Amino acid sequence: MNRVLVVDDDASIRAVVAEVLRDDGNVVVEAGSGDQALAACDGNEFDLVLTDIRMPGMDGITLLGRLRQRYPGAHVVVMTSHASLETAVGALKRGAYDYLSKPFENLDIISGVAKRALDNVRLARERESLIATLAANNRELEKLNRFFRELAIRDGLTGLYNHRHLHDVLRLEVERARRYRRELSLIFADVDYFKRYNDTHGHQHGDQVLRSIAELLKDNVRETDVVARWGGEEFVIVAPETHAAEGMEIADKLRDAVARFPFYGRESMPGGQLTISIGVADLASDLTHDTLVHRADQAVYRAKEHGRNQVCLAA
């Protein structure tokens, strides 16, 4: 139900207008001055205000300005018995929705103007509600898009970047390193005796080992490094702006962090530890991202051959 405020210092006119609007199904509040009108608006929201222009104290034009200032979306219809086109246009320019001339030709005019104004209020609110709903839907859609984008590039078990995304990152980093003649290293890690661990303790504990190693790798690299699960028990770290010696230092820090970690059942593994072997390769001018991976992978095999829990630099 619409709430309407009628403001006029003439009680008889105010009563007539209020009665017409009540008959149309509106809740009507009456005020005899501009000050009373502003007081009535405190804590109350009106869908429409009809106000006389000529009133003692605060006139209708001033009230119009105050209402528009406090309630920018307020719909105000001005009424005047001293109507002139200039007065009406002046009120409209100041933000009035419409105007009524007194004496009224017939009471239907009041209903008609009020109905048009209230329909406009309803449409404005529906439009605002629709915009708010669309904005909320867009925010939710963007969240879903971000979620699915992340899902597409993340490994389901460890939360690290997956094999496909790692290839994209590595390709871009190789291109950037070549273009700007910058250093780039690739660190390839493989869990030692992982099949034996799985066979002994089961795949559930094996999965937890992979998740823990993923966290250890993330926690022990720099923010600019990219950590990914290559597949199975293999992990890759792309280290931009990093020459071979620095890559070896990072790799040994990772190896040590894993060797020290108290994995479940590690005492059953060789040496009483669960460890990783690591190969490091840096970018040479004639390498592609595929050959860089191949060189790092070959260095892992050398680390395995030298007894595991080792870091080897690609030849």
Main features:
315 residues, alpha/beta, Alpha-Beta Plaits, Rossmann fold, 5-stranded parallel beta sheet, 5-stranded mixed beta sheet
Task: Please tell me about this protein's structure.
With 315 residues, the protein is α/β, with parallel strands linked by helices. The chain folds into 2 domains: 3-128, Response regulator (Rossmann fold, 3-Layer(aba) Sandwich); 163-313, Alpha-Beta Plaits, CATH 3.30.70.270. 52% of the residues lie in helices and 17% in strands. The mean pLDDT is 91. The strands form 2 sheets. A 5-stranded parallel sheet has the order 2-1-3-4-5, with helices on both faces. The protein has a 5-stranded mixed sheet with strand order 7-8-6-9-10, sandwiched between helices. α4 (85-93) links the parallel β4 (76-80) and β5.
Task: Report strand order across the widest sheet.
Answer: 2-1-3-4-5
Domains counted in the coordinates: how many?
2
**Strand residue percentage:** 15-25%
The level 1 CATH classification of the largest domain is Alpha Beta
What is the tally of helical segments?
Answer: 10
Task: Look at the structure and give the mean pLDDT.
Answer: 91
Number of E strands: 10
Query: Biggest β-sheet: count, sense, barrel?
Result: 5 strands, parallel
Low-confidence segments, ≥5 residues, pLDDT <50? none
SS content category: alpha/beta
- The CATH superfamily label of the largest domain reads Reverse transcriptase/Diguanylate cyclase domain
